[in-house]
């Protein structure tokens, strides 16, 4: 292998590119990224950056090393797996010996292009400027992202209503923890509207839920994400029903092709979270360099969210059924260390407003991940 | 030599930096981050850059 091309420009792509170098690859590494920006973290976009507490540039991540070519504003539009070529939007053909697909996901939209969403730096800046003059907001979608955006809107003094087809966070967290979070949201002054019969956006300021119509200055759409695999449609690579790129336990997709991050579907589902993108970025590099002898990686299910005055850190599989054991603190005070035991001996540990080294949380929950290699 | 800067207001104690470059980043029993050294030796540069990058809240910076 002389040339490896990484398509994508965020944490999975960068981690894979750097891990190729750390793994001893001394050929050419080229990263092609659609966005005009240097790489940045999306995590603060729904939190400090949206609230205006932190400047957008505080989310920037260190640029890759000088021995990695990083092209911005370069969108891949087609892949020829046989000819081992990626075609860019401007018609340039980029040949490769090895390919890393790390094109992540984009915000799902309900009405087309004009929805306000929070996925990119530009989205967050556009929304922040709208929120600055708004008095009320409707947030469509009660997942992690929707609840974080609602919290930020509330902190800015807006009246906020979260609207979803199902109770917020229920599918993600399970009933016990979802109830706790929704109670905190209500105490925070966030209204929650469950509309099982459907939600329709009927204009820039209006949403219909069943019989009633809600109005607000700003409507934010946080209804999930869609993997960026349109450019792979004709490539013959395996996509699942939701468009996720199917990869094995070593992140391999096809000979010479690996994938990492939000774009990946593994064991029938995507895991669109930061830690997963890092772990898979490393594993994908190893999968490409070591081929059949690569070690399957062990996923580290670690999730967190900050919303409605709750700082929640989770180690272990979700969602959770039944009530937890309370290992420390008090649920009434909303400061506690909790654990759910699952059949077969596994467990999920959750810290709610409870400071604890993550390593200890992981010991109580999913277990301590295998020590990372010293570099990348 | 370049220096590592930690924005302790941002740090959430996720510990990904420690997992990536354990010889430089350490979380104590309270979940507080400590640096075993603030200056980055040339041979550590890449590992430190990788640790800075995996921090999900961009709490770490390296100043040349
Ligand atoms: C607002 C927000 C808050 C979040 N908060 C948390 C959190 O608190 N905790 C958590 O664990 N996770 C959080 N996440 C999720 C986390 O950010 C993602 O899991 C992570 O960004 C995935 O990284 P990735 O590199 O796989 O994909 P992405 O970050 O989606 O990056 C994909 C990259 O590929 C580029 N690209 C796409 N298509 C093409 C193409 N055709 N050609 C070239 N380049 C292309 C894109 O421009 C982008 O740069 C949050 C996400 C958002 C949006
Ligand atoms: S990865 Fe970032 S948030 Fe986590 S301990 Fe290190 S500096 Fe703090």
TrEMBL record, chain A:
Keywords: FAD, Flavoprotein, Oxidoreductase
Cofactor: FAD
Lineage: superkingdom: Bacteria
UniProt keyword annotation of Ribosomal protein present: no
Entry keyword annotation includes Flavoprotein: yes
InterPro entries, sorted: FAD-oxidoreductase/Apoptosis, FAD/NAD-bd_sf, FAD/NAD-binding_dom, FAD/NAD-linked_Rdtase_dimer_sf
One Pfam family it belongs to: Pyr_redox_2
GO molecular function: oxidoreductase activity, acting on NAD(P)H
Residues of the FAD/NAD(P)-binding domain: 3-281
SUPFAM superfamilies the UniProt entry points to: FAD/NAD(P)-binding domain, FAD/NAD-linked reductases, dimerisation (C-terminal) domain
Protein name as it appears in the record: Ferredoxin reductase
TrEMBL record, chain B:
Name of the protein: Ferredoxin
SUPFAM superfamilies hit by this protein: 4Fe-4S ferredoxins
Role summary: Ferredoxins are iron-sulfur proteins that transfer electrons in a wide variety of metabolic reactions.
Pfam families, A to Z: Fer4_15 (PF13459)
4Fe-4S ferredoxin-type domain: residues covered: 2-30
Cofactor (UniProt): [3Fe-4S] cluster
Keywords: 3Fe-4S, Electron transport, Iron, Iron-sulfur, Metal-binding, Transport
Xref: Gene3D superfamilies: 3.30.70.20
Species, as recorded: Streptomyces griseoruber
Keyword Iron-sulfur among UniProt keywords: yes
An example Gene Ontology molecular-function term: 3 iron, 4 sulfur cluster binding
The UniProt record lists the keyword Electron transport: yes
